[in-house]
Structure formats: structure tokens, C-alpha cells
Backbone:
């Protein structure tokens, strides 16, 4: 049995509707920003994961005899058992004789962990609050005023305040960056919910007796996914920068863990004489944030074409 | 200019073998294929066709307004002997407004919201003439008078949002006519307007056209409008012009089977004979149903609007009741209050023995099943991310039915609405508008409701598809002995499917009774004006003479 078509005009409409659109994955893989940005992010993740295998030494190891070496110089190190090894310091050493190459590579771990966990945490919390706030009218006013309050405080200032309340550490830094990011996700999700809740298919679901949690999960949440993924990449980029800023200011991750912000903070005093202390972590930081943002732009263009035209 | 001679002399617009390409991967290679027609001086030619027939694309092609994706693939369009299909962009700019002008369907979006109406027309004059500022203003006031605007100086200084839909369309017409073009292209100019406003605008276009002796190319899907305005008609089907001739010839003696089908699909204004079942069970009764919108927020005391005021209607099993009215009359509000998509302010909605009007949500859920609603927009009534099967079984499964059983019911319902049961696992975008509306009906029927509300359910459909969906609804009503509430702005639809009809104006039911009484012997002045404004009301479509 074939589909009974009303008439030829409607049949033509049905044929036009049946013309297959390339799948999301195909469109994503054809987008240049997604390709380049994604590849660079992937390389950074691999560097972070494989840091011990890439010819690094213990990034915290202090050696007073090899302080402030220029990049590419050969240094000879006396080991604990008396033997001597000679190696090239690709990115020089800092004022305590630590190997910057090793520190930068290990530092990628912290940056990526912070970026990814801030993005996922703020999305999970933000989507939940946004859904509830957008759908339940009487809660909306209260929740949104709290969010407005949070947004009124500069993000980095709020983070500094939060860090100073708790013990410095990775968890505290993530928490401090997540809090100011949540309102942005909430606003985005809420705006999507407000427009989707008026769609006739949501009203149809109400009139067939679908309970509220199922309406939110089945009919409303899927519409928020594309814009939230896009927003997530931008949050990730911003979080990496924020972590570096906090660490640079000396209130982020403790100095025994290398992070790009830490390395730059410590290299600051000797910047004029030994610029490599700051240069290399800065290059990695810039490339990573650029890659994440490129990926985000590409995702936005493919997943959310209306938004890309507006920007 | 000679005002009386209709169709004399050289044509204003002569379109020869015009083809407009569609992008690759479409369902057909051309949006319009080898189209030939002429518009003579002092003549109104209607291009009529269903959606996707290419009628708007042809108009855009003549105006040089085609998007890049739809290039002209061949043929000529002579405007006063000059081929505009091959004209440069600069030349087209000189021609637009001066020799040819266009008015659009939606006057709100066609006008710039941050400029006053006077300034927008002033811009046209500054661009194309050497008039001084005072002269231009005089000219604009004068043209506003010509399009019969009340208080032209006020309109001159008004922004588009301060005007009504009809006034905005008059501003568009004034702008199009200010330089007295030879050709006016009107692309569905009255589709977005209410029927009484539509009648005024049609009359205006007709009068101005006659006074100035312009040629008018009028695009519409509505045969009532064709009947009112056209001298000649061209019928388009999927980009091809199937038939062209004088209006009476096409309406009375169409030769092409497609034209015959299209014209006979137009519902008649004459109410159909329907056997009544007055002794059958009362399904729904509203008592003084009232809905008041607004009332201000925490900080401001906003004004409130009575969208529905003491509405009393009754619907019996197996009968259909229509609510007709113009936009803003509150007809949809009543439907949504009954379906409890919004909460009524006062009154009762008696569903059998129960009053659902002010029932709290948790008690209401049990009764949701009993009233189902089919919405206007078939493209937005189905969740695009769920298969149509999932959409249909959602309701029954909410009330505890097993998935396999619900699926079996969905398959049966697909046959009821004449769709292939095997297409249940497809997504909505793989169906046409008419098919989607059938799926929505199936979803509503899956709940085995006592009352089915059709809220403008056929308004977005093309006339031939509309006729079939109306037939389907009527058949379902009879077979399942359903009570039906039909919300529509289209008097023709109401005349054909309803036993009783309620006419609403500004939230109040002004007339309520058997459809034959209301249509043939209207009592209330508003009903009379509504009936008088319906385009082509005196014409019985589909009663063809032998060719």
C-alpha cells in the first residue's frame, strides 16, 4: 500500500519534503571552522593526555644549577645517584631551574580539565534552572532576579571572592568560574523555552494529558541542545582564560601544580630578560582558546543557522 | 489617460516563455516553466494557483526581486516594450515605482517600523523626482486621500505599528501608486486581512485601477477574490500556466481538468442541508464563559481585555457547531478555554456531568482525554524530532495503554485518515501540509474524545487539500458520532460543515443559531456586514456549464 496522496499539488509538496537533507554529521564534517578548530582541540587533548610520553621530566623538579636557560640550550644535570645526563631544554628553564617545556605540556591538563568541567557543569545546572524558570511562570520572576544579580557582578571579581572564601585548589577554581557562567546558560535556555512552549505541538501534548516532566524532557529540552552546545564551547574558551587569569593573579591553582597561568605569573618578574617564560605558555593558551572558539563558531553555523546570520 | 478602455492597445506587461529555475535537488527543475501571459492597460489579471505553483515567483521575476538561488532561465518579460527579464539592476531600480510597483501580503513587514509612513513615501519621491519638500508633502497627503485614508496628515506622521492592518495596506498601496506606474503587481495583498477590510481594499484597488487605467497583475489563491476583481484569470499548476481566459469563461467553463478540480473545491456559501439530531446527548455546554486578559503586573495597572464575554454554546453528539468571526473576535479564546489550554476567568464548561472550567490541573488530567483539538498550523503541530507514530501513541500511553496496543491503534487510525500505516516511523518533515493535518486528526482521535475542536484546522491548507480534509472530518464525525467545534474565519467552510453557527464580535456572541438561519436570514448587523464582505458570495463555484 502506498501513501494515499490527496492530489498532485500536495504530492509535489510531499516529494519536496522527502528530499533528503544531509545529516548533521555530514554538514559538520564539511564545515572548515569545525574541522580546523576540532583538530586543534584534539591535538591539545592528546598533548595533555600523553604529556609523560613526550620527553618531559617532572614539571615540579627544581634544579638551582640550571636556572634561566634560553630555549634550545643543552643542560647537564646531576642526578641523585651521581650520574650526569645531558638534555636539550626546548623552551628554556625558569628562575628555579624547572623545565618550561614539561611545565607547559602538563599545564595543558589543568586548562582542559577546567575548560571542559566548567562548560559541562554550567550547562547541566543552567539547563535545569532555565527549563524550570522558563516553564513554571511563578518561579520565573524570582529565579531571573537572582540570575540578574549574579550577572551584575563582574565574573572574575566574583570568582576572586569565591576563591578567597575557600581553600585554593582545582575544585574551588572550577566552582568559582561555574557560578558566574550559569546565568548566561539560564538566560539562553529560558529564551528557547519561552518560544517553544507556545508551539502547538507542546499544547497538543498538554491536551493529550502528558505530565509536565515528560513535556519538558521530550518536547522542550531537545530544542535547547543545539544552542547550548554552541554556548558550551564559548564557555569552555572563557573558562580556560579565566583559570589562567586566576592563576596569574596567584589565587587559582596552587603553584606546585603547573598551569599556564602559574607559569606566566612566575615568569613575570624576569619578562624583560627571559621572555620565554611567558611566551610559550601564552602561545599554547592563545591557540587553545582560538581553537575552541573556532569550533564553537563552526558548530553555531551548522547547528543554528538563524543565529549565524544575525551575528 | 484613457480610463474606459479595458484591454485596448499594446499590453503593459507581456510575458513570453518565462522560465525561472529552482535550485538543484528540488522536486522539479523549474519554479515557473515557459509561462506566457499579457496584462493590458486598464485590466486586472489574476494569477491563481495553490502554494508552490510559482505565482509569487513570477511576480518577483517581473520586478527583478528574485533571490539569487532562483535565476531566470529563459524567456522575456516586456514592460511597455522593454525586456525587464534582462534589465540591469540599475535600470530595474529606475523602473520600480515609476513604471511598475508592487504591494505585498504582509504590510507590517513590508513597511519600515522606525520610519513614519509619510517619510517612507517621501523617500520614493526624493529618489525618483525633482520635487521640493513642500510639493512632495502635498503630493503624499493627496495620495493618502486617494486611497481613502481618514485624516491624511495624521497618517503622514504615524509609524506603521500605530495603524490597523487595513490602513497599513493602504499606505503600501499609496506608496506603490504615488508615481502612477503603468503596472501594479499585488501579491496576495488581502490574504492577511479580515474579510470586511479585504472587501474595502479590493474595492479600492478596483477603483484606482479604473481611474488611472493601470494594468494590475493580481496574485491570489482565493477564487472568491478572483470573482470580485479579475478581468482575466491565469491558472497555474506546479509552475506551468494551464489555462488562461476571461474570468467568466474560466469560472463557468474551465477546460483543463486541474482548473475544474480547483474551482469545484471552493466551498459554497450556501449552507448545506444537514439532518439534525436534536434529541441526541448534550456533550458540551458553556455557561457564561468569560476570559479576561491582562489586568496589569506587579508594578503597573494595565488595561484588561474581555476576549470572551458570557459565551453560551451547546454541542450535541454527532453535531458540529461553528464559531466564526474576524481576528480578535475571541473565537480561538473560547476554543482554548474549553480545551483548558488557558484558564477561563469565569463561567462553566459542562462536559457531560462535570464542570471543567475551573477544575485544578491535577483533577483535570482525567478529563483531558475527552476534548481534543486540531490546530491551524500543520507545520508546527507535530514535534519535528519525534516520529509521527510516537506523536500519535503519546496520548494513549499517558493513560496507561501498552505500547504495542497503542501502536496497533495508531496503525488503524492512519487508515482512517487515509495514510499509509507503514509510514508511522517517519518524521513530520517527510509529509506535506495536508498529510500532517491528517496525522494531527489521527492523534486527536487516538484519545477517543467526545468533542473534537478544529481551531482553524483547514485555514493553512490549499483549497483542494482543504476540501479533502473537510470531507474527512465530516466523515469521521458521522462514523464516530462525534461532537465537533469548528473555529474558522472562513464563512464558506462554516456553511459547509456546521449544523449551528455562532458569530462572534469583540468577545460577544452576536448571533447564534442553525446555519441556514444565520447565513440566509441574518439578524445582527455585524453578521450582515460579514456576509456582505465575503468575496464572491453570490457565485456558486463548481457549477460548470457545458463547454
Residues:
Amino acid at each position: 500500500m502506498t501513501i494515499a496522496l490527496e492530489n498532485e499539488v500536495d504530492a509535489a509538496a510531499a516529494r519536496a519534503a522527502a528530499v533528503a537533507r544531509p545529516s548533521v554529521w555530514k554538514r559538520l564534517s564539511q564545515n572548515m571552522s569545525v574541522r580546523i578548530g576540532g583538530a586543534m582541540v584534539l591535538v591539545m587533548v592528546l598533548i595533555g593526555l600523553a604529556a609523560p610520553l613526550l620527553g618531559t621530566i617532572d614539571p615540579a623538579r627544581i634544579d638551582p644549577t640550571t636556572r634561566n636557560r634560553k630555549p634550545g640550550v643543552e643542560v647537564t644535570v646531576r642526578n641523585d645517584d651521581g650520574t650526569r645526563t645531558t638534555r636539550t631544554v626546548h623552551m628554556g628553564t625558569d628562575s628555579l631551574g624547572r623545565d618550561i617545556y614539561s611545565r607547559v605540556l602538563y599545564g595543558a591538563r589543568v586548562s582542559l580539565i577546567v575548560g571542559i568541567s566548567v562548560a559541562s557543569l554550567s550547562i547541566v545546572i543552567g539547563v535545569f534552572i532555565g527549563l524550570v524558570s522558563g516553564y513554571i511562570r511563578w518561579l520565573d520572576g524570582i529565579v531571573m532576579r537572582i540570575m540578574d544579580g549574579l550577572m551584575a557582578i563582574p565574573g572574575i571579581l566574583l570568582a576572586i571572592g569565591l576563591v578567597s572564601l575557600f581553600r585554593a585548589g582545582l575544585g574551588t577554581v572550577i566552582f568559582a568560574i561555574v557560578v558566574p557562567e550559569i546565568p548566561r546558560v539560564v538566560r539562553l535556555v529560558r529564551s528557547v523555552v519561552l518560544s517553544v512552549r507556545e508551539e502547538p505541538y507542546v499544547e497538543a501534548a498538554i491536551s493529550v494529558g502528558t505530565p509536565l516532566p515528560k513535556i519538558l524532557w521530550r518536547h522542550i529540552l531537545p530544542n535547547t541542545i543545539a544552542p547550548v552546545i554552541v554556548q558550551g564551547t564559548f564557555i569552555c574558551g572563557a573558562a580556560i582564560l579565566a583559570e589562567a587569569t586566576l592563576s596569574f593573579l596567584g589565587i587559582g591553582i596552587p603553584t606546585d601544580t603547573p598551569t599556564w597561568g602559574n607559569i606566566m605569573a612566575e615568569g613575570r618578574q624576569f619578562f624583560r630578560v627571559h621572555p620565554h617564560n611567558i611566551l610559550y605558555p601564552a602561545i599554547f593558551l592563545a591557540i587553545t582558546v582560538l581553537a575552541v572558539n573556532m569550533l564553537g563558531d563552526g558548530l553555531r553555523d551548522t547547528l543554528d543557522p538563524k543565529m549565524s546570520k544575525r551575528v | 489617460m484613457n480610463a474606459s478602455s479595458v484591454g485596448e492597445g499594446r499590453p503593459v506587461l507581456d510575458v513570453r516563455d518565462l522560465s525561472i529555475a529552482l535550485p538543484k535537488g528540488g522536486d522539479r527543475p523549474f519554479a515557473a516553466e515557459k509561462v506566457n501571459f499579457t496584462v493590458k492597460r486598464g485590466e486586472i489579471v489574476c494569477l491563481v494557483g495553490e502554494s508552490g505553483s510559482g505565482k509569487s515567483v513570477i511576480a518577483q521575476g517581473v520586478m527583478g526581486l528574485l533571490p539569487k538561488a532562483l535565476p531566470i532561465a529563459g524567456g522575456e518579460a516586456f514592460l511597455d516594450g522593454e525586456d525587464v527579464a534582462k534589465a540591469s539592476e540599475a535600470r530595474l531600480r529606475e523602473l520600480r515605482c515609476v513604471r511598475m510597483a508592487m504591494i505585498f501580503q504582509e504590510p507590517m513587514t513590508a513597511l519600515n517600523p522606525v520610519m513614519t509612513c509619510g517619510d517612507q513615501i517621501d523617500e520614493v519621491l526624493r529618489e525618483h523626482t525633482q520635487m521640493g519638500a513642500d510639493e512632495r508633502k502635498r503630493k503624499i497627503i493627496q495620495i493618502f486621500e486617494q486611497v481613502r485614508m481618514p485624516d491624511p496628515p495624521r497618517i503622514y506622521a504615524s509609524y506603521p505599528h500605530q495603524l490597523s492592518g487595513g490602513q497599513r495596506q493602504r499606505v503600501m498601496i499609496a506608496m506603490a501608486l504615488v508615481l502612477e506606474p503603468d503596472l501594479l503587481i499585488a501579491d496576495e495583498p488581502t490574504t492577511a486581512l479580515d474579510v470586511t477590510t479585504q472587501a474595502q481594499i479590493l474595492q479600492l484597488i478596483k477603483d484606482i485601477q479604473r481611474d488611472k487605467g493601470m494594468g494590475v497583475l493580481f496574485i491570489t489563491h482565493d477564487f472568491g477574490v478572483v470573482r470580485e476583481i479579475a478581468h482575466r484569470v491565469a491558472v497555474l499548476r506546479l509552475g506551468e500556466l494551464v489555462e488562461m481566459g476571461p474570468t467568466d469563461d474560466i469560472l463557468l467553463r474551465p477546460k483543463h481538468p486541474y482548473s475544474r478540480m480547483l474551482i469545484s473545491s471552493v466551498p459554497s456559501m450556501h449552507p448545506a442541508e444537514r439532518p439534525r439530531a436534536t434529541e441526541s446527548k448534550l456533550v458540551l455546554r458553556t455557561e457564561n464563559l468569560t476570559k479576561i486578559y491582562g489586568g496589569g503586573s506587579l508594578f503597573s495597572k494595565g488595561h484588561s481585555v474581555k476576549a470572551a464575554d458570557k459565551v453560551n454554546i451547546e454541542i450535541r453528539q454527532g453535531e458540529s457547531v461553528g464559531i466564526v468571526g474576524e481576528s480578535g473576535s475571541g473565537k480561538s479564546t473560547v476554543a482554548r478555554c474549553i480545551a483548558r489550554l488557558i484558564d477561563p476567568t469565569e463561567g462553566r464548561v459542562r462536559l457531560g456531568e462535570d464542570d471543567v472550567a475551573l477544575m485544578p490541573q491535577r483533577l483535570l488530567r482525567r478529563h483531558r482525554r475527552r476534548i481534543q483539538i486540531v490546530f491551524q498550523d500543520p507545520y508546527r503541530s507535530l514535534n519535528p524530532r519525534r516520529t509521527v507514530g510516537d506523536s500519535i501513541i503519546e496520548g494513549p500511553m499517558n493513560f496507561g495503554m501498552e505500547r504495542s496496543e497503542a501502536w496497533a491503534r495508531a496503525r488503524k487510525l492512519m487508515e482512517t485518515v487515509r495514510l499509509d500505516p507503514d509510514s508511522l516511523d517517519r518524521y513530520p518533515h517527510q509529509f506535506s501540509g495536508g498529510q500532517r493535518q491528517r496525522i494531527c486528526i489521527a492523534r486527536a482521535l487516538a484519545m477517543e474524545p467526545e468533542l473534537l475542536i478544529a481551531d482553524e484546522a483547514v485555514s493553512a491548507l490549499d483549497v483542494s487539500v482543504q476540501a479533502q480534509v473537510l470531507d474527512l472530518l465530516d466523515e469521521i464525525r458521522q462514523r464516530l458520532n462525534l461532537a465537533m467545534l469548528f473555529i474558522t474565519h472562513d464563512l464558506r467552510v462554516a456553511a459547509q460543515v456546521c449544523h449551528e453557527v455562532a458569530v462572534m464580535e469583540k468577545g460577544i456572541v452576536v448571533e447564534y443559531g442553525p446555519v441556514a438561519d444565520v447565513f440566509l436570514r441574518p439578524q445582527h448587523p455585524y453578521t450582515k456586514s460579514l456576509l456582505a464582505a465575503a468575496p464572491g458570495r453570490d457565485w456558486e463555484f463548481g457549477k460548470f456549464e457545458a463547454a
